[in-house]
Amino acid sequence: MARPKIDRDVVLHVAKLASLSLSDGEVDRFAAELERIVAHVEQLDALDTRDVPATAHVQLESAPWREDVVRPGLSREAALSQAPRVESGGFAVPPFVE
Amino acid sequence: MLEDLGVTQIAERVQRGELSAEKVAEQTLGRISALDGGLHAFLHVAGAEAIEQAREIDRKRSRGERLGAMAGVPVAIKDAICTRAQPTTAGSKILAEYLPPYDATVIERLRAADAVIVGKTNMDEFAMGSSTENSAFGPARNPWDAARTPGGSSGGSAAAVAARMTACALGSDTGGSIRQPASLTGTVGVKPTYGRVSRFGLIAFASSLDQIGPFATDVRGAARVLSVISGHDPRDSTSLAAPGGDLEAACGRTVRGLRIGMPAEYFAEGLDAEVSESVRAAVRELESEGCTVHPVQLPHTSFALATYYVLATAEASSNLARFDGVRYGLRVDPGGAPGRSGASDLRAMYGATRDAGFGAEVKRRILLGTFVLSAGYYDAYYLKAQKVRTLIRQDFQRAFAEVDVICSPTSPTTAFRLGEKVDDPLSMYLNDVYTLPANLAGIPAMSLPCAPSRAGMPVGLHVMARPFEEATMLAIAATWEARSPARALRPPVAAAAPQA
């Protein structure tokens, strides 16, 4: 396929998908760096992979199953112990419903 | 002296009562405080906890209880592996204050074998790097030359073992992060077969590639640690009940008749001539021990780097989505009146937290990974790379039909200077060209020292084997180690250390 140009707009779009707020300087720098890296990745196009199956994972097919039984997890106190903000026994987040 | 003892020697002396675990822990902590100021191998030293663990082991022995395989052996742990109530930063500001509420499975197994956890080691942030220069807390240094990198991402673990602050350490290896630093510091480092060691409690980088493994001062020590941390864990659905026999016994096994493959693709452009000659000399020595040497082809080797950077960054972008300022780690609330703009407040908090918490390399990889997974590009990049991963696996399957192990250099050069490659991501990534195919194929691989360069810097011999055939790999490694000119060498910083 034709190679997409990695410019500021692409970086800003991807940064939004990835929940990253970038400074202006970062956007310019990452655009230039990603452009170079993606150009390197384009070499994969030289390989004909039409009839090649994809490998997502090397040996999930042989992984044993575990018993489907209830087992103890972290206590609520332990689970909340590292949260930056806790309210009424839960993780506190900024309001997100209008 | 303690620093001359390997893992198995320390354990045996503590088991027999010739050395107390407390004395070992005290000397180890003394050595760390004498040496680590110049090396920055550790991000956290667990002094009081280590002494308490050691005393408990000594009490256990005095009660007549049998001590485990790691009796009193101090272990340094890469800071990507969770240790309960002890700092675990993954080299990142976003986890600077994080105290995990649980131990990783490998930590539970080490403790159950009576090991002493002495501290957490420096690393590239989220294991993304080849020099530890991406650590948010400043780089580690190479004990052979403090102006140079110990490699990465598990550079702190490698430096700790090279300087003989500990006889062993744990690292993690996604594309070479155990083997490349082992090579650059003259230590033994093993990346096990994917699935041999539980990843439960390892802060994930690329889940289909990550594997925890040992560093040690000798091959037998690495085999001991690997045996202790191996095995199926119901908490990691990708861990397997690994066959493979007695790994330590394999270190004494004859290699006569084993077939060694030499891939031309690993001795090509970009390989330092001294590194090439050192590795070839090691293979010639193995030949004189009764191995046979055969050329093998791994024709898709040159595509491994591109494949890796698509797959690893895609997985990382997904794994690192969990760092959002809600359940653990840093949270940054952006300025402005809260509660006015609904959903945008939450998104702004995510963005501000992640922008402040992640370093440049982590952001770069999250962006690349998100890009290759995004609508319109998934097939062209991500799916394409998954297919090339299959071709790379098939290369190894074909080669291992002809030979028992494959030998190559671990890294194309000896340790480079801090700062030398930090501004050139692609050149930094090229450090891992010989190590990352093993992660893509899921096979075991290790690095151990061969003859150093003329400047006295360590060179690593890389040995790869079929899945779950660590025993064969270790037999080859132990045979070479017994003959290696690197065996008796110590880095200047280790030799110059005051007696604790």
Mean pLDDT of chain B: 95
Give the ordered list of helices and strands of chain A: HHHEE
- Say how many strands of chain B there are: 11
- Sheet with the most strands: spatial strand order of chain B: 1-3-2-4-6-5-10-11-9-7-8
Q: Quick one: which chains have the greatest interface?
A: A-B, 59 and 79 residues
- The pLDDT mean of chain A sits at 90
Series of secondary-structure elements of chain B, N-terminal to C-terminal: HHEHEHEHEHEEHHEHEHHHHEHHEEHH
CATH architecture assignment name of the domain at 1-47 in chain A: Orthogonal Bundle
How would you describe what is shown here?
The complex is a heterodimer of chains A (98) and B (500). By secondary structure, chain A is mainly alpha-helical. In chain A, 34% of the residues lie in helices and 4% in strands. Chain A is built from three helices and two strands. Chain B is of the alpha/beta class. Chain B has helices at 7-16, 21-39, 47-62, 105-112, 155-162, 179-185, 219-229, 247-250, 273-288, 304-319, 343-357, 360-373, 378-399, 425-429, 436-441, 470-483, 492-495; strands at 42-45, 74-78, 116-121, 168-173, 188-191, 211-216, 259-263, 292-296, 405-409, 445-450, 459-465. Chain B has an eleven-stranded mixed beta sheet with strand order 1-3-2-4-6-5-10-11-9-7-8, sandwiched between helices. In chain B, helix 9 crosses helix 16 and helix 10 (304-319) crosses helix 13. In chain B, 64% of the residues are buried.
Summed up:
By secondary structure, chain A is mainly alpha-helical. Helix content of chain A is 34%, strand content 4%. Chain B has helices at 7-16, 21-39, 47-62, 105-112, 155-162, 179-185, 219-229, 247-250, 273-288, 304-319, 343-357, 360-373, 378-399, 425-429, 436-441, 470-483, 492-495; strands spanning 42-45, 74-78, 116-121, 168-173, 188-191, 211-216, 259-263, 292-296, 405-409, 445-450, 459-465.
